[in-house]
Amino acid sequence: MLLIADSGSTKTDWRLVDEEGKTINSVQCKGLNPYFLTEAEIAKIIKNEVTPIASEVDKVIFYGAGCGLPVKVEQVKSAIESVISVKYPTEVYGDILGAARSLLQDQKGITCILGTGANSCVYDGHEIINNVPSLGYILADWGSGTVLCKDLIALILQQKLDPEIIADFHATFDMDTRQILDKIYNKPQANRFLASFTPFLLKHADNPSCQAIIKDNFRKFFDYYVIPYGPQSMDLPISFTGSIAYHFCDFLEEVAAEFGIKIKSIVQHPMSGLVKYHCQTVPAIK
């Protein structure tokens, strides 16, 4: 049995499959980003929420946000192996490699993630050959749910959006400025808190001011995460995964066209592609 995980900063999807890719069981838990959780915290979540479905597991393959550095990979790997018994060594990779394998399988292309966070890479069909620095939501992550909603909240608190939107925001969330700022500056996982307002932004996406937030963020995303790969890469197919890319796809495709880019595919969740990759394209257990 193969246990595959796809983890963002908000949630982690787990799927237990047999060698042919048939789903035996699945479960979802909170995001397991090692920048926001300790090894012990990750292990506790997995033990409580994942081990009930993780019987007779031969191998765990984990793709996660925050798993780009070896020290973070080891942190997650150690947490998993402390609570799940496996026959073969656990494999831990960054979420962007997971996105590339899911969307492109063994084909060349550019893969982008737009969910709670943002990322991109150039993939040669086997491995990542180019990847702009992933600097997080404070320094980058334009177009992500965190940064989109950071910009939204800023305009709301500054009273710079339409009064109807501001009134709807306070009626919907019943939070004053002090409470919002406390969540952002004094509580853990401010990125998840900010991204949680994404449905509200989507609700008002037909408003010109909200559209400006969305389109400006997507322009900055292409400027930082795609254009630096150079003209030699612009002929490669470009695909997206993530909740933001999926739910705001019309705006994403509109902005892409401004750059002369045609998006090949937009997939909300990469799990089905990962199962196909590990069970059909490059079988993990043979």
TrEMBL record:
It comes from the Bacteria. InterPro entries: ATPase_NBD (IPR043129), Euk-type_GlcNAc_Kinase (IPR052519). Keywords: Kinase, Transferase. Coiled coil: none annotated. Gene3D superfamilies: 1.10.720.160, 3.30.420.40. GO terms for molecular function: kinase activity. This is N-acetylglucosamine kinase. It comes from Echinicola arenosa.
